[in-house]
Design a protein that fits this description.
Largest sheet: 7 strands, mixed
Structural class: alpha/beta
Distance between the termini: 51 Å
Helix content: 25-40%
Number of helices: 13
Radius of gyration: 24 Å
Strand order of the largest sheet: 1-2-7-8-9-10-11
Bound molecules: MU-OXO-diiron
Strand content: 15-25%
Length: 383
C-alpha cells in the first residue's frame, strides 16, 4: 500500500506485522521497511526493499506509477533489508543506483549488477524540480551509509537513523500511541554501539532546515522530537531506575531479586526485575542502558553462575557504561556465582558496590536484601 506524503512524495513501504525478530530485536508489533518515491522529471526511489517483500513493494509502487519510469534508486544503506531486491528492481526499471563508493563496493560484492552513480558528502543532484543532497554518515549503521535530503521538501531520508521496528497503519509518529520502548530497543542494539558516529549524524541533521524525517524503519516524524530522543540516548540515557536481573532454578535468586527491588522502591527509585532466562536479551540490554545501576544475581550451578549470563555479558559489553553494580547469589555446597559475577563485571569495568551470597537462600536471611536494595539506591542517588 502506498501513501501520499506531499504532492511529490509518496511512502512506498512494506509493513510486516507478523515479523517478530529483527537483528535479534524482539519485535512484538512487527516491523516496517520504508521506501519513498519522489515524483519529478526523473522519478527517484529512496531505498529499496527486502527480497521477501518484493511483490508487495511492487504493488505499492504501481499504485503511483509504472515502475519502468523510475530513473534513479538512491541507496542510503546497503544492508539487505533495503537492497535485497535490487537486482529485480533494476531489471524491471532500468534505473541507475545512486550511492556512496563504499556502498557500490558492498552492493557489487552482494551480487548486485547495475549502472551506478557514486556521490560524495554534500554533493547535490537534480532530478527535475527537486534537488537531492547527500550527507555522509558512515557507521550509522554500516561504513557506507549516507542520508539524503531534499531541501525543496524540507525532508531528510535518514536510513536506519531515527528508526523504530514497528508495523504501523499510521504513517506519522504523532498519529500513533507511545512506542518509545520499541525505539529504545532498536536504538540500544543498532545505534548505541555506534553512538559516536550517531552523534555526528545528529549534528548534521540539526544543520538542515527540516519539516519531516523519513527513516527506513518505523514512522515518519513531523515534530522532529525523535532527534532529541536520539541525542539523549547517545549522551545520558539513564533514568531513575535500577535493573535487577537474576537466574533461578528453585526460586531463591528470584526471591532475593524481589527483596532487593522492594528496597530500591522504598528509596523512590523504579526497580525492573527480570529473569534472564525469560527476557529478550536486547530488551535486557536496553534496560541496562537506561538504568542508573545494575543488580545481578544467580544460583551457583556447575561451579559458576548460570551459563546464560555469558550472553548477558556479551550484550552488556556492547553498551559498556562503567555503572555501579551489586551482585547476589545462592549456593548449596560450594559458592561460586557471586565470585564469578564480580569478576566478570569488574572486567567490564562496572564498580561493584555490594554483594550478598546466601547458602540455600532461606527466607529469614533474604530479608537483609531489602536493606541492601535501599543502600544501593542511596549510593546511586549520591552519584
Ligand atoms: Fe535497516 Fe542497517 O539496516
Amino acid at each position: 500500500m502506498s501513501e501520499q506524503i506531499s504532492k511529490r512524495l509518496h511512502w512506498i513501504g512494506v509493513n510486516n506485522p507478523e515479523g517478530r525478530d529483527f537483528h535479534g530485536i524482539s519485535t512484538p508489533r512487527g516491523g516496517s521497511y520504508n521506501s519513498y518515491l519522489l515524483s519529478d522529471e526523473y522519478p527517484t526511489l529512496i531505498d529499496g526493499t527486502h527480497q521477501r517483500f518484493l511483490d508487495g513493494y511492487l504493488e505499492s509502487l504501481k499504485e503511483v506509477m509504472n515502475p519502468q519510469g523510475i530513473k534513479y534508486i538512491v541507496i542510503n544503506h546497503a544492508e539487505p533489508d533495503h537492497s535485497g531486491a535490487l537486482n529485480e528492481l533494476v531489471s524491471l526499471t532500468g534505473a541507475t543506483i545512486v550511492c556512496t563508493e563504499k556502498c557500490r563496493e558492498l552492493l557489487e560484492a552482494m551480487g548486485i549488477s547495475a549502472e551506478f552513480r557514486t556521490v560524495g558528502n554534500n554533493e547535490e543532484m537534480s532530478i527535475g524540480s527537486l534537488t537531492l543532497r547527500f550527507i555522509m554518515d558512515p557507521m550509522v549503521h554500516w561504513p557506507e551509509t549516507m542520508m539524503t535530503s531534499v531541501p525543496e521538501e524540507k525532508v531528510l531520508f535518514s536510513g536506519d537513523l531515527y528508526g523504530t521496528e514497528i508495523a504501523h497503519e499510521a504513517l506519522f509518529a504523532d498519529e500513533m500511541e507511545d512506542f518509545s520502548e520499541l525505539s529504545r530497543d532498536y536504538f540500544a542494539l543498532v545505534m548505541r554501539p555506534l553512538h559516536m558516529s550517531v552523534k555526528q549524524a545528529i549534528k548534521r541533521t540539526r544543520e538542515l532546515e527540516l519539516e519531516l524525517l523519513c527513516p527506513s524503519h518505523g514512522p515518519c516524524h513531523r515534530d522532529l522530537r525523535i532527534i532529541d530522543y536520539y541525542e539523549r540516548m547517545c549522551t545520558s540515557p539513564e533514568e531513575d531506575k535500577v535493573l535487577i536481573m537474576y537466574a533461578s532454578i528453585w526460586g531463591s535468586s528470584k526471591r532475593m531479586a524481589e527483596q532487593l527491588a522492594a528496597g530500591v522502591r522504598a528509596e523512590g527509585m523504579e526497580a525492573c526485575v527480570r529473569d534472564i532466562c525469560k527476557t529478550n536479551m536486547v530488551s535486557l540490554m536496553a534496560e541496562a542502558l537506561t538504568s542508573k545501576g545494575l543488580m545481578l544475581g544467580s544460583l551457583t550451578m556447575l561451579g559458576m553462575y548460570h551459563p546464560l549470563y555469558e550472553t548477558v555479558f556479551a550484550f552488556l559489553k556492547l553498551n559498556n557504561q562503567h555503572k555501579k553494580a551489586f551482585v547476589f547469589g545462592t549456593y548449596g555446597w560450594s559458592s561460586a556465582a557471586c565470585r564469578g559475577l564480580t569478576q566478570k563485571l569488574s572486567e567490564l569495568r562496572y564498580e561493584i558496590v555490594g554483594e550478598r551470597d546466601l547458602r540455600f537462600g532461606r527466607p529469614e536471611e533474604e530479608k537483609q536484601l531489602v536493606e541492601d536494595g535501599r543502600q544501593f539506591a542511596i549510593k546511586l542517588k549520591e552519584g
